[in-house]
Every structure is written in C-alpha cells, then in structure tokens.
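2.7 Reproducibility. Because tokenized structures are sensitive to small changes in the input, we list the exact sequence used for Tryptophan 2,3-dioxygenase, including any N-terminal residues retained from the expression construct. No trimming or masking was applied before prediction.
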Amino acid sequence: MSCPASPYDRAQEGEQLDDECGMLYGEYLMLDKVLEAQRPLGEVHKAPVHDEHLFIVTHQAYELWFKQIIWELDSVRGVFKSVLEESQTLEILKRLNRVVLILKVLVDQVMILETMTPLDFMEFRNYLRPASGFQSLQFRLLENKLGVKQDNRVKYNRNYAKVFGNDEEAIRKIEESEAEPSLKDLVQNWLERTPGLEIEGFDFWGKYHKAVNEILKEEQEKVNKEKNESLKRHKLAELEHRKEVYESIFRPEVHEALVSRGDRRFSHRALQGAIMITLYRDEPRFSQPHQILTLLMDIDSLITKWRYNHMLMVQRMIGSSQLGTGGSSGYQYLRSTLSDRYKVFVDLFNLSTFLIPRSYIPALDEATKSHLCYWGPLKQTKTDALKEQNGKNPLLDSI
Ligand code: HEM
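Resulting structure tokens (single pass, no recycling of outputs):
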C-alpha cells in the first residue's frame, strides 16, 4: 500500500502516485466497493430518513468485525487441531485476546445505534421486511465455531438454517461449521491431556477427591458440635447440598447425566483438567493455560453482554410485543436466548463451585513440580561453581 521510496516528492511535482508503487490506499482497501455499499431504502422510496445511514453502517461494521472474529477463531482452532505445542500457547493467547477486545467494541457499539430514536426507526423499518439480523450467516457461523450446539438453542432458533433457503453456499458453510470440531471440542481435547491427571503419575483427581473428603469430614464434625438445633438443621442441609454438588463431579454417571441434559459441556476428564489448571495456575506451566481459560470465559461473557444490550435496544425500538422483521416474537425471543444454554464454556464459570482453600490443595511432589515448571530446578551456574572453588565472587572481584 505505502511506497518504499516515498512518493511525496513526486506527488508535489504532480506525478501520478501509483505509477511505480503499485496500489494506493483506496485501491488496496477496495473502498470503492465498501463506501458504495450503503443504499438507504428511504432514499429509494423517495422518503429519506437521516438515521437510516447510521443503521446500515452499524450493521456493516458488525459484519466486518464478525468476519475478523471468525478469522481469528479459525486460526486458533487450527493450532488446537495440530497437536498443540506449548510454544504455541502464546499465539493462541494473543488471538483470543484480540477476539475479546473486538467483542468489547461490539458490546459498546450498540450505544451508537441507540442514538436513533424509535420514531426515526419507524420511518424506515417497514422497508426492511423480511430482513433481520436473524439471517446473519456470520453470526451463526461464529456461534457454531465456538460450540453452540443445535440442542442447546431455544426452540425457535433450532431451525435457524431455514432462513438461508436455497443459498447453497450459505447452507454448505453452515453444515461445515456444525460438523467440524468447534473451539469447545478442541479445548476439551486439550484439557483432557493436562499433565498431572495420569493415575499412574501424580493422579491429581485421586488426591483432590481425598482433599475434598477431608474438608467435608471436618465440616461434618463442626456441624455435629452445634448446640442450637435449628442452626444445626440449617447447616446440615447446607452440607448435604455441598456433598451432592461434589458427587456430581466425583460420580462420572452423574456428570454424564448433566452433560446429556445440557447443564454441563465438557467431558469428565476435561473438567478435571480445568480444575487442576485453576488450582495450580501459579505453576509456570499452567499460567498460560489458565489465561486461556479466562479468555474463553471472557468471550462467553461478552457475547452474553452483546445479546443483552441488543435485546434492550430492541425493546427500546419496538417494545416487548411487536414481532421482529424476521418473524420471531422479537424482544421475547431474544430474551429467551440469554440463558446459560448459549454459554459454550459454562463449565468454566461453574468451576468456582469446586475450588478448595489453598491449604487443602494437594502438594506437588518433586517430580510433578519439576514437570510443571519450564525451567526445572535451579542448577549450578558456571559463576556459582567458580565462587565455590575460590570462596569468592569472581564477578565482584573483577570490578
Ligand atoms: C434498531 C436496531 C435493531 C433492531 C430493532 C433489531 C431487532 C431484532 C429482532 C427483533 C431480532 C429477532 C429476530 C427477528 O424476528 O427479526 C433480531 C435478531 C438479531 N439481530 Fe437485531 N436488531 C437491531 C440491530 C442489530 C444490529 C446492529 C445487529 C448487528 C449485527 C443485529 C444483529 C442481530 C442478530 C445476530 C440477531 C439474531 C440473534 C439470535 O438469533 O440469537 N441487530 N434483531
């Protein structure tokens, strides 16, 4: 785009800028296409509405950012697919962080469109029918590539692909995005390989189970000593509930039942990996994986925030009882998509339930500790060796 040999002097002399250097800014960015792509329907109907321009530009900006998010997600999925090397986790972190920052912009962008009043929107809304964000192909691809499953969608949303009718290219992309491993699937595979889970090795799960039993036993003893009968009953009920919650992770069949109900997403082993990474996040080898898990939650969180902001904007623009231009119940439909069903990494949010106080976290044995540390135990350096030999510090002596 910019020319290695500055074109400035030649430009002053009135020369054609693109003679030697190839492309100019507008050409490279194809601005003729991008900036010609706004066609307010009010103008077509000879009743121009000032705010329709903002409405179009806002949607287009969203679609461009959706495209960038998909681009990043595809690349991150690619890295996860090709047996992940630890050296690649930094690249994953950078890209996921970028997705998070874009999503933050998208959440805030809703406010700009809210400067349009409902009365202004009414002026051109009818021209839009049956167009609707419900038909955004990229939004569906983004959901699928993250790992929103058909079964977890609310009823009206399950047939979302119908809106693409006979558009073969769109249908192909949708089918592909549903069939290929989602980010959630790939993160799950990666978590299943968390070092330290091996039963014949550190056996984190066995040790963690023991620690939890110890905590529960101590709590039971405290409750038994309670003199006040009604307080005792209350504490006992609370303890029973905690035990049940822990059962849900210690008994694989309970975990599987929760997965098939859609209340949990990760496999049992992946959940173990996520708990281990969260508890030992201060170990060098787990600090980047822990950041990855945090970013995945941020993504879920920000998409939920976008859904919420969009829903509020819709209520402000069309109220709670008008149908959407796409044919849904409008505000009511959008409200129903705000549940945990659409959170792909919901298990990570719920991990906090299973955290245990630091003092109970099973201590790492030497072998595991050095395994979880990139740099290994401190080794003697050449300087240390010389110092030991001479009883002096050679570096200080040379000053
Ligand atoms: C005045 C502004 C807006 C209004 C009144 C509005 C209204 C609606 C309504 C009523 C729906 C439900 C489907 C339907 O029946 O049409 C919907 C869905 C959707 N809209 Fe908007 N929308 C607005 C702005 C936007 C913007 C700026 C975007 C950005 C891309 C967007 C993206 C979407 C998406 C992706 C869906 C599908 C959501 C889902 O199915 O979970 N909308 N919109």
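The chain has two domains: 1-31, 38-201+249-371.
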